[in-house]
């Protein structure tokens, strides 16, 4: 399995990813706090955050391409050396629900075939995780815990949990789940059944930069800036859980 993260040597790129995710998160918090706003909150959040990030990248990195969930795909990105892959609001459903904190902003940079920088902002909990700043190592959870989609948990996780004697914990936002693994609130994030590059690029960059293990269900490494941005499955886990989890996944695959 080849690596999908080769960090850029330009620290300014790492910092920019962090600052942009953080600033977009602040914008979303302000929108969420606007009095009387009860309808189309998620759609408005997607729009405002996307416009902010596109304008900031155009100003700060005018020669770079962008792949965004909220914009039409520009095929010219496929011949670009540098591509920002952004999800202006990951976990739109949770953003629209009062009190929920499991939504995020994703900003990643891909250079010459690999992820090179990234940031995941969790605005509602006041944290931004990135390839720019180190995170203090967190202890493993007492029980093996698999973080899964709140709205569409993959069918295989029941069998996986039984094999591993693991607990399932549903959450929103791919970024929130991946950062929960980094923070030691879960052992692994397991997803199957549909995602796109913008859902996982920033979480994967941050996870790999901080020593977590990443693979797809079939054992291959996720690849980015592909002609078809669909990237439907992903596993991010703590190093201590990887041997047991990889073995269980491979065993399940052999029986499918």
The CATH class of the largest domain, by name, is Alpha Beta
Rg estimate, integer Å: 17 Å
- Strand % is 15-25%
Name the shape in a single word. globular
Number of helices: 7
Domains, number: 2
- Distance N to C terminus: 21 Å
Proportion of residues in helical segments: 25-40%
The biggest beta sheet reads: 5 strands, mixed
Q: Can you count the beta strands?
A: 10
**Which structural category do the helix and sheet elements fall into?**
alpha/beta
Average pLDDT confidence is 93
Q: Identify the strand order in the major beta sheet.
A: 1-2-3-4-5
- The CATH superfamily of the largest domain bears the name Fructose-1,6-Bisphosphatase, subunit A, domain 1
What does this entry look like structurally?
The protein has 256 residues and is an alpha/beta fold. It folds into two domains: 11-130, Fructose-1,6-Bisphosphatase, Chain A, domain 1 (2-Layer Sandwich), CATH 3.30.540.10; 145-254, D-Maltodextrin-Binding Protein, domain 2 (3-Layer(aba) Sandwich). The protein is built from seven helices and ten strands. α1 packs antiparallel against α2 and α4 (156-164) packs across α7 (242-254). The relative contact order is 0.16.
């Amino acid at each position: 399995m080849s690596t999908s993260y080769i960090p850029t040597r330009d620290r300014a790129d790492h910092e920019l990813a962090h600052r942009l995710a953080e600033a977009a998160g602040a914008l979303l918090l302000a929108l969420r706090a606007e009095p009387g706003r009860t309808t189309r909150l998620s759609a408005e959040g997607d729009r405002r955050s996307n416009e902010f990030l596109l304008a900031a990248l155009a100003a700060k990195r005018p020669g770079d391409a962008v792949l965004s969930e909220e914009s039409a795909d520009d095929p010219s990105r496929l011949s670009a050396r540098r591509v920002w892959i952004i999800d202006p609001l990951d976990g739109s459903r949770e953003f629209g629900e009062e009190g929920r904190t499991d939504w995020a902003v994703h900003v990643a940079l891909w250079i010459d075939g690999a992820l090179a920088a990234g940031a995941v902002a969790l605005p509602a909990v006041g944290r931004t995780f990135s390839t720019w700043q180190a995170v203090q190592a967190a202890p493993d959870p007492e029980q093996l815990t698999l973080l899964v989609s709140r709205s569409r948990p993959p069918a295989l996780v029941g069998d996986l949990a039984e094999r591993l004697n693991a607990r399932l914990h549903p959450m929103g936002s791919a970024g929130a789940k991946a950062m929960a693994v980094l923070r030691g609130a879960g052992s692994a994030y397991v997803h199957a059944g549909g995602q796109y590059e913008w859902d996982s690029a920033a979480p994967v960059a941050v996870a790999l930069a901080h020593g977590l293990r990443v693979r797809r269900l079939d054992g291959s490494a996720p690849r980015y800036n592909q002609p078809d941005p669909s990237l439907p499955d992903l596993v991010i886990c703590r190093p201590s859980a990887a041997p047991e989890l990889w073995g269980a996944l491979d065993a399940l695959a052999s029986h499918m």
